[in-house]
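Technical annex, item 7. During the second reporting period the consortium partners agreed on a shared format for inverse folding records so that results from different sites could be compared directly. Each record opens with the tokenized structure and is followed by the designed sequence. A conforming record, contributed by the partner at site C, is shown below for reference.
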């Protein structure tokens, strides 16, 4: 599904976020910025350990904040590590909203044109996918309406349930 708001294209995409050729990928990070499993583990495995090392030199950060590293061997130039959870590896609606906005603000500060997000906090964090989709989409729309350098925001999802939830949110459901 795809929707255009203020000339910014928001779209859902099924597949591996590590394959996306965008200016930045978003990592659903913990506030210490070490990269374990899930999306973070995949980014580290494909992009290289230097991504984690560069991120950890900037941490710890507050939950809801985000930092930027290089993209290593990824097709993306940058990784934006959005701290959606603390050491307890749990998250909530406010943390997801703040982490989404922080990632979008880092992209705007760098003048980036394209970004790819995973579903934040739904893997290790255990947050319900439907609520996550609604929260992230609302944050993205608010950011776009407020002005941004971005031209494309992708939400890259793994699994039918996640894809359907984000498509539903993007359709206005």
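Designed sequence (site C submission):
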């Amino acid at each position: 599904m795809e929707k255009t708001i203020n000339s910014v294209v928001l779209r859902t995409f099924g597949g591996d976020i590590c394959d996306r050729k965008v200016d930045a990928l978003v990592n659903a990070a913990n506030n210490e910025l070490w990269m374990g499993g899930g999306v973070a583990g995949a980014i580290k495995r494909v992009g290289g350990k230097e991504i984690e090392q560069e991120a950890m030199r900037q941490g710890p950060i507050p939950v809801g904040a985000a930092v930027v590293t290089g993209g290593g061997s990824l097709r993306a130039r940058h990784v934006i590590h959005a701290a959606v959870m603390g050491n307890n590896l749990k998250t909530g609606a406010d943390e997801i909203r703040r982490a989404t906005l922080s990632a979008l603000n880092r992209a705007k500060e760098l003048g980036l044109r394209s970004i790819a997000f995973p579903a934040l906090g739904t893997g290790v964090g255990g947050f319900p996918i439907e609520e996550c989709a609604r929260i992230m989409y609302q944050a993205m729309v608010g950011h776009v309406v407020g002005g941004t350098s971005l031209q494309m925001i992708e939400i890259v999802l793994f699994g039918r349930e996640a894809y359907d939830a984000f498509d539903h949110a993007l359709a206005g459901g």
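Helices lie at 38-47, 49-56, 93-110, 129-145, 160-170. The CA atoms of residues 31 and 62 lie 6 Å apart. All partners now use this format for quarterly exchanges.
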